Each structure stands twice: as C-alpha cells, then as structure tokens.
C-alpha cells in the first residue's frame, strides 16, 4: 500500500531505550521522557550558562580590552552561524540523543580550553568551540520540542524548552560568582571554567541515557539551506526580530550589563547575584510570557517588552550608578531579554509553511544577531564607553518596535466556540455552514484516547501518531468545513457506488 | 522449430498466446523459460516468495494438450504470478508478514480461480509490503530491489509483482491498489498497470486493507496484456457484494479503437504542483507524444482534489484499523511503515471517517464535472524517481525531500476514493530510470483507457525498454 503519511517526524524502529528498559509502557510513560528531557535541558543550561556572563570578565581579567571582550562573547555566533548555515538539513535530522550528547561534550572541551589558558585570544577560540556545542544543542533540542507540540502550543513549547534551559542558565551567574570568588582574580574565573567543563562532560553522559531517541525521516545532509520557502515582509520582519533578540542577549545581557557591574566595582558574588536576577526575570518571562502569547497573541507582549527595554536601557545608561539599582535594573532587563528570545521564534514558525524551515531560518537569524550584538556592543564601547553602548542598545530596541508593527499579529486564529442556539427547528437552508473546530488534543490526551480504547502503544509510537495527525490537521480542518446536507437521507456509500455503477453519470 | 526459451521469458502474454496458437512455442517452453529467468535473477531480485515450479510444469503440460486439441482457453498456458495477499488453495499466502508465514488457505480467491479457469499457469506467489501497507523494508522477507537500480525501491505494495514482470520472470502479475499500489510500482519499474474501476474485479479472498478503497488489477508489459488479464478477472461475483454489477467486457476489442479527436483533460493544479524538475520535464515530453496520437489535450480544474486525498487517507486509516485491530498488540513487531500507519489509525474519529465517506460523492461530482466532454484525464504517473530503500524513505523533489508516500501517492489516492480507473504507461526515462504517465477514465470505462494507451504504445517504444537482467547470485 501506500499510505501517505505526513510523517513530519519518525522515530527510529523500535521503542526508545527507556521504554524497553521498563518493559510495558506505563501510565505515566508519556510524561517520563518529557520530564527527563527537560531535566537534561536544565543540566545543559547549568553547564552552558555557568560561564556565559563571566566570559567578558575573563577576557578583561586576562588583559583584553573591554571592546574585545564584547567581540569574544559574540564570537560564539561564528560557530553557531556555520553550523546553522551548513546544517539546516543536518542537525535537525540527527538522532536527538546523539546530537545533545555530542553538543555537551564539545561545549565541555571549549570550557576546559578556557580553564587552562592565560591568553584572552584563546578564550575567544574556546568560545567558538563552545558555540559548536551550543548550536547542536539548540538545533536538535528546539526541533524535538516543536515537533512534539501542536499548532496552537508552539510558543509555549518553545518557551518551556527555553525556560528549562535557562532555569539552568539562571543558576550560572550566582553559582559562577560563588565559584569564582573562591580564588581571587582571573584564576577564580579559570576555576569556574574548569567546573563548567566537568559539568558538561557529566551532562553528556546523562544525555546519552535520558534523551528520547528521535530521528527525522529525512537523512542528514550538509549543505547551504535552499528552498526555505520564507517569503514576504512579515516573516522577514519576524526573522530580523529574532536576530535582534539574540543581539540583545549577547550584546546587552552577556556583555554590557556584566561590564557595567564590574565598572561599578561589584565583586564576583554581588555581580553574580545581579546577573542571577536578570536570568530569573529572563526565564520567568520566557515561561509565562510564552504561554500568554499562545492565548492572546505575540505582538502585544513583544511590543510591551521592547518598550520596557528601551526605558530600562536608558536608565542603565544614565542613572544607575550603585549596586542596588544595578541589580534592580538587571532584573528589569531580563524581561526584555526573555521576550525577545522566544516571541520572534514563535512568530517565525507561525508565518512559515514548514516548521523545520522556520526553525532553520530562525537559528541563522539568531546567529547573525549574536554576532551583530557583540560587534555593535564593541563598537559602542569603543565610541562612547559602556554608557554610550547602552544608548545604542536603546535605539536598536526602538527599531524593534517598528519591526513588530510590520510583522503584525501572527498567532493562528483559534476557532471560536459556536454560538448556542435553541435545539428546535433548524435554520432555513439545507447545509451546516461550518462545523466546530476542535484543536488537536495534546499528546497526553492521545494517550488517554488510546487507553480508553484498550490500545497500548509505546510512547514513541504514540508521539509518531500525534505528529502524523498534526501534519494533517490543517487539511482536515478544511475537510470539516465542506458543507454536508443534514436535511436529506444519508445513503452513503450507496450513492457513491451507484455513481460508479452508472459509469460516472447521475 | 521453436525459438530459444530465453526469448519466451521476454515475450508478452499476447505474444505467447500468438506463438502457442501458431505452434512456434508451447506453454511448457514458456514456463521453462520463466523458471530459467527466475533462477538467473533470484534470490537477488527477491520478487518470488513461493515458487510453484512442479505445479506449473504440470499445468503447462495440460495446456500443451489443450492447444493441440484446439480447446485452449483465453489465457491458456500463460505463466503468471499473484501478489501474496491473494488466497490460493493449498499454497501458502503470507500477506508478506511473519504472522502468516505458514498460512495456507483452503480456497482460492475469486480472481485466482478465474485465472486458473482461464488456463493461466500460476508460477509464483510474489513479494509485497507487509499486509500491503508496510514499507520497502520487509523484516520477514526482505526488500524487493528495483530491477533498474537495486539501491532503490520498486515502490509498493505490489513490489514483487512489479519486479517479477520487469525482469521477465513472468509476463503477467496481479497487484492490489489502495492508494496507488498497482500504479506506483508499475511506474517505478517501467510497466503498464491498471487499477480498474472500483468493484470491477471481485476481491473475495484478497487480504483487505480498506474495503472502500481496495482494488485488484493487472500489471504487465503492455496495454494489450493488461486488457487481456482484466478481461479474465473482471465481472461480478456473489461472494463479493461490492463487485460491480456489470458483465464482462471484451477489453481487447478496444485496443484498435481510433483515438483521433478524443479529448483528454489535464488537471494542472495539485496533481502537478510538486514534482522533481526532471520528472516534470519528462512529463511534458510525454504529453507531446500523447498528443501526437491524435488526442486533444485540454486543461481542466479539480479544485478540491487535495482534500480528496485527505479524505481517502482518513478512510484508509479507519478501515485498516477495523481490519487490523488485532495486530495492534504486536505493532512494534510489524514493519515500520505499516506500524506507523496503524499507530495513527486509532485517533481518527468516527465522525471524521463518516464525513470522509459522505464527501466521496462531492469529489466524484467534481471529477464528473471536470471530465465533462473529456474521454479521460492525464496526470503524472509519478512525481519523483523511486527513493533509495530505507525504513523511512524520502523522495527527492529536487530542492527538497519529502516522505516518499506523500510524493508517490499524490496522483493516485484521489482516484481510489472516486473509484475511477487509472492506467499507468511508461513514458520515458530520467537518469536511466523509467517514468510514467497516468490516464484516468470514467467509471466502468477502462476500454477507453486501453484504446488511448494502446495508441500511445503503438507510437512509442518506452514500454519496450527492459532493465538489465542480473546474473544469478
């Protein structure tokens, strides 16, 4: 036969190892892989985030000038861009378990390199190596996350993934500050990078055993992306916003804010505390803001967060001059950093015909943003010092407001419930205008449906079925909208057979 | 003196019958030629699941006698094969599955009985995707490689039927078609195959997948052979209440019918929207050749044909679940692609299934409207070249790859839903691999398709190209 399946995602043959190990699937088996996956994501967040806000400080500590510190922070964008440019048909098609395991191992090697060097230039090279790991992780992880989510839950799925990651990342500044403070000067920072390496190596091992093994039905191929099918000013506006979001992260959160803290004379621990506050706000915004965006739209929350960011950055550039207000401002900055990360991603997926292509384009835009953010931060520092760079950031955020207006609201309309009408005489006319559209049940509800029918499927098979139905969803909605008579007797399939028997005549 | 037996393996059924009639060959010689070709190509071809050499030799001897006695029947002495989901009394019928490896039916399927009664010589039971719904990688019996390129699939699910006929193991084979399973492997292997009108061939004794979408039909190396075979197996039967209440038609008479002036509709939309550029270019060339037969090509619209495909799949999902519900408990032991279909089936609601059934007349009326004033439609027989064999195959569309069933079934499954006949014809090559066109007819009007197809094959030689025959492994 021939069954056409829109198998947007096909698990490898046989159940994943965690299902095999436990024998028959259990009632909570569907939740278990997600929890474990998110556990690995949190661990990766810790591993990836422990050193991120301290990279610029290590560069300065090893004798590098502050503008070069900005370039080093953004140098990760080079490897991210390389992987995302050549790997749009490679990373998303890798076995998820392999991709995430290798990503953490590579990041660990980069961290170890920074730990043993006394040259800030080598830190830059190590940062590029870390970027390869991060690219693998984000590419593989986000694809897996989106594939498992229904059309109306994309933003919250991306938000949950990012939130799980940044829950780990949030620990980084505080934990990193505490670790770095154990040894004075740059050596404390190098110790921090060594601990980071160890955590990533541990995470790689854990990922190998806990990450569900998912693989695209398409074979991995290296090559420049082609035919992403992204056309129209709205989607390009969304992609530019995605780049802006990453620029905000690299240029503002990871460079300017830490450098300002250092210039204000904060020690590693208070600085870590302030950056921890930023991360907390970042994570909370991603998690709650994304869920809100799935219900009420993307445009309004993004507009508000960008406007808020303009005000906060102006404050950082002009009035924040003591540790307490610095910490408060860092907390406030986190709102904009979180919103500009997740919402443009959801907008891009909303507007693209294919989720995989959208994610690939989003990643490339983000990488360019990371590079651009560091570059602009460095130029800003060189031109006007750290306060001057903050002023430039405010201008960029204001530009983001215009782009948000161009992109417009992208959330797919959620079908409204039909109006209640008395169940008496039907309205005149022989057809039902449009049937109620019911959103695709969540994966967990698929499990309940199967259980209700006394059908036992492995979690992997269940997720595959869910992905299949997700792929068909739009067409099925159209099918449901075709009018059918309800005032005439239903004699199918007799009518169809009579048509055939009559040679296609009526 | 008869021709060398190796020549007989490459002969069509029509040519064999002609030679039997004029005494230049005998059924026994034809059977030996086919057995020699099978020996030369198996096990590499992996098309044959059960070889019935002794039984075939005995039947061929009886046919020799009938030809000598002047009592030959329509298919007297012609070797043929059956897809292994067609029941054969006393002969294993596996369904391509380990679950039925030792299953031996005690009665013939109606079409198998008709073939035997018409004098055909059953030579082999042929490979299939598991239960006609698996993928190319059959875990129990192995994949059937495409004779034109063994790294690629024959398509399916009538995979063994296609490879066997293409290699000259047999001149005729029976396939079944729920979403393209006769037409896709025929197209991929350079054969002529027809999915007849729904109900034209009784399906009693054929393992079902979707009772409102399943069809059985011929796969051969020429239009004339398809007409010959369909003539034998068609007609109503009391054991199949869905069989079409139309008496047998002499399809062979249509082969010489003039086609000049016939109008053939070309629906350019969904059915041509996603094609590999080289396959699309070959399709355009084929249409030029088709027009050279004297037919007139006119553009027609099928605005909701994409939804017909969705409706078709929803029906298949629901009905395959009903038929294969008992296999859900061991779903992970099934072949991956079939398991992926069966796993998705429980989540099709009864309301959606019934809606799809009730919408079928809508699509039929749309097709009727599009074909008004036309004798047939023409569509691509394939949108991409056969994919490389793997558990989860993809088709290359030039700028991207898509799941192979999306590409392969695109031009076929809508006509399973409407029940219309569809004939695929070899129409050229791309990168050394055959490509095909499809003619879609009015219900019950296979004769017109045969007329147009025969005219096309009189003017072209695409159907005469054969893959190189590999040596014995």
Q: How would you describe the overall organization of this protein?
A:
The complex is a heterodimer of chains A (506) and B (473). With 506 residues, chain A is mainly alpha-helical. Chain A is 71% helix and 1% strand. Chain A is built from 16 helices and two strands. In chain A, strands 1-2 form a two-stranded antiparallel sheet. Chain A is elongated. Chain B has 473 residues and is of the alpha/beta class. Chain B is built from 16 helices and 15 strands. In chain B, helix 6 runs parallel beside helix 7, helix 8 runs antiparallel to helix 16 and helix 11 packs across helix 13. The longest helix of chain B is centred in the last third of the chain and has 21 residues. Chain B is globular. Classes of the chains: A mainly alpha (506), B alpha/beta (473). Chains A and B meet through helix 14, helix 15 and helix 16 of A and helix 11, helix 12, helix 13 and helix 14 of B.
Topology:
The complex is a heterodimer of chains A (506) and B (473).
Chain A: E1 10-11, H1 17-21, H2 31-49, H3 52-61, H4 66-86, H5 96-116, H6 120-147, H7 154-180, H8 186-210, E2 214-215, H9 233-263, H10 268-296, H11 299-318, H12 323-351, H13 355-407, H14 443-452, H15 459-481, H16 494-501
Antiparallel strand pairs in A: 1-2
Helix pairs in contact in A: 2-7, 2-8, 3-4, 3-6, 3-9, 4-6, 4-9, 4-13, 5-6, 5-8, 6-7, 6-13, 7-8, 7-10, 7-12, 9-10, 9-12, 9-13, 10-12, 11-12, 11-13, 12-13
Chain B: H1 5-9, H2 13-22, H3 27-41, E1 48-51, H4 53-69, E2 79-83, H5 110-117, E3 121-126, E4 145-146, E5 149-153, H6 159-167, E6 172-177, H7 183-189, E7 192-195, E8 215-220, H8 223-233, E9 263-267, H9 270-273, H10 277-291, E10 296-300, H11 305-324, H12 336-344, H13 350-370, E11 376-380, E12 394-396, E13 401-403, H14 404-409, H15 413-418, E14 422-430, E15 433-441, H16 446-459
Parallel strand pairs in B: 2-3, 2-6, 9-10, 9-11
Antiparallel strand pairs in B: 1-3, 4-5, 6-8, 7-8, 7-14, 11-15, 12-13, 14-15
């Amino acid at each position: 036969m021939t069954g056409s399946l829109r198998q947007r995602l096909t698990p490898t043959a046989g159940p994943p190892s965690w299902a095999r190990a436990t024998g028959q699937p259990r009632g909570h088996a569907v939740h278990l892989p997600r929890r474990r996956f998110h556990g690995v994501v949190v661990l990766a967040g810790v591993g990836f985030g422990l050193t991120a806000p301290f990279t610029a400080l290590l560069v300065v500590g090893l004798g590098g000038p502050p503008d070069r510190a900005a370039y080093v922070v953004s140098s990760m964008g080079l490897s991210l861009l390389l992987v995302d440019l050549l790997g749009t048909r490679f990373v998303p098609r890798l076995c998820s378990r392999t991709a995430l395991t290798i990503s953490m191992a590579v990041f660990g090697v980069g961290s170890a390199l920074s730990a043993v060097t006394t040259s800030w230039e080598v830190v830059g090279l190590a940062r590029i190596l870390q970027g390869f790991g991060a690219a693998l992780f984000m590419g593989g992880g986000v694809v897996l996350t989106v594939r498992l989510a229904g059309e109306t839950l994309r933003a919250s799925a991306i938000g949950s993934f990012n939130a799980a990651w940044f829950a780990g990342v949030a620990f980084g500044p505080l934990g990193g500050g505490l670790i770095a403070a154990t040894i004075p000067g740059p050596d404390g920072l190098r110790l921090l990078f060594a601990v980071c390496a160890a955590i990533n190596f541990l995470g790689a091992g854990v990922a190998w055993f806990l990450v569900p093994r998912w693989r695209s039905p398409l074979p991995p191929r290296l090559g420049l992306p082609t035919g992403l099918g992204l056309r129209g000013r709205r989607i390009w506006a969304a992609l530019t916003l995605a780049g802006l979001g990453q620029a905000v992260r690299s240029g503002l959160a990871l460079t300017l804010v830490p450098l300002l803290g250092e210039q204000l004379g904060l020690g590693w621990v208070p600085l870590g505390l302030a950056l921890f506050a930023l991360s907390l706000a970042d994570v909370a915004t991603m998690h709650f803001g994304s869920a809100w965006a799935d219900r009420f739209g993307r445009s309004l929350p993004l507009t508000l967060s960008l406007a808020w960011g303009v005000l906060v950055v102006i404050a950082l550039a002009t009035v924040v001059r003591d540790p307490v207000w610095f910490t408060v401002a860092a907390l406030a900055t986190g709102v904009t950093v979180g919103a500009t990360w997740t919402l443009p991603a959801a907008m891009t997926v909303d507007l693209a015909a294919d989720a995989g292509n959208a994610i690939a384009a989003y990643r490339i835009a983000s990488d360019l943003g990371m590079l651009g953010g560091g570059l602009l931060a460095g130029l800003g520092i060189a031109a006007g010092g750290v306060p001057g760079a903050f002023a430039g950031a405010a201008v960029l955020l204001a530009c983001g407001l215009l782009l948000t207006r161009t992109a417009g609201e992208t959330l797919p309309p959620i079908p409204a419930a039909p109006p209640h009408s008395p169940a008496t005489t039907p309205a005149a006319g022989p057809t039902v205008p449009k049937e109620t559209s019911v959103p695709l049940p969540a994966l967990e509800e698929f499990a309940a449906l199967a259980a209700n029918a006394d059908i036992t499927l492995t979690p992997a098979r269940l997720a595959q079925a869910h992905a299949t139905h997700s792929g068909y969803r739009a067409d099925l909605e159209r099918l449901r909208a075709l009018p059918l008579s309800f005032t005439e007797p239903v004699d199918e399939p007799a009518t169809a057979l009579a048509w055939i028997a009559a040679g296609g005549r009526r | 003196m008869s021709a060398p037996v190796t020549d007989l393996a490459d002969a069509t059924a029509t040519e064999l019958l002609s030679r039997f009639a004029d005494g230049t060959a005998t059924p026994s010689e034809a059977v030996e030629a086919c057995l020699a070709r099978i020996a030369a190509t198996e096990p590499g071809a992996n098309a044959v699941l059960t070889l019935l050499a002794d039984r075939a030799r005995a039947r061929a001897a009886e046919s020799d006698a009938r030809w000598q006695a002047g009592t030959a029947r329509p298919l007297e002495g012609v070797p043929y094969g059956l897809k292994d989901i067609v029941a054969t009394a006393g002969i294993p019928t596996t369904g391509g599955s380990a679950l039925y490896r030792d299953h031996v039916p005690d009665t013939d399927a109606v079409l198998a009985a008709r073939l035997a009664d018409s004098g055909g010589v059953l030579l082999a039971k042929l490979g299939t995707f598991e239960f006609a719904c698996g993928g190319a990688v059959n875990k129990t019996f192995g994949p059937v490689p495409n004779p034109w390129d063994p790294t690629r699939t024959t398509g399916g699910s009538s995979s063994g039927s296609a490879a066997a006929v293409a290699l000259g193991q047999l001149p005729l084979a029976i396939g079944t078609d729920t979403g393209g399973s006769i037409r896709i492997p025929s197209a991929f292997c350079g054969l002529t195959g027809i999915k007849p009108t729904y109900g034209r061939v009784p399906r009693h004794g054929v393992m079902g997948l979707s009772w409102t979408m399943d069809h059985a039909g011929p796969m051969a190396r020429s239009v004339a052979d398809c007409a010959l075979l369909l003539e034998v197996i068609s007609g109503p039967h009391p054991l199949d209440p869905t069989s079409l209440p139309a008496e047998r038609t002499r399809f062979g008479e249509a082969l010489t019918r003039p086609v000049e002036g016939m109008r053939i509709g070309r629906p350019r939309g969904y059915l041509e929207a996603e094609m590999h550029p080289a396959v699309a270019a070959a399709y355009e060339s084929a249409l030029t050749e088709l027009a050279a037969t004297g037919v007139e090509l006119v553009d027609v619209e099928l605005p909701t044909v994409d939804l017909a495909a969705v409706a078709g799949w929803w029906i298949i999902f629901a009905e395959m679940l009903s038929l294969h519900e008992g296999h859900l408990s061991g779903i992970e032991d099934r072949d991956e692609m079939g398991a992926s279909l069966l796993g998705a089936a429980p989540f099709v609601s009864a309301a959606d299934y019934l809606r799809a059934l009730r919408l079928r007349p809508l699509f039929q009326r749309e097709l009727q409207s599009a074909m008004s004033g036309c004798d047939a439609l023409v569509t691509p027989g394939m949108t991409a070249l056969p994919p490389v064999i793997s558990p989860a195959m993809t088709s290359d569309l030039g700028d991207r790859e898509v799941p192979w069933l999306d590409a392969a079934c695109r031009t076929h499954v809508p006509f399973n839903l409407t029940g219309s006949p569809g004939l695929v014809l070899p129409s050229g090559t791309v990168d050394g691999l055959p490509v095909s066109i499809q003619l879609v007819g009015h219900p019950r009007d296979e004769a017109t398709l045969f007329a147009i197809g025969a005219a096309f094959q009189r003017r072209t030689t695409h159907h005469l190209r054969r893959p190189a025959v590999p040596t014995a492994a």
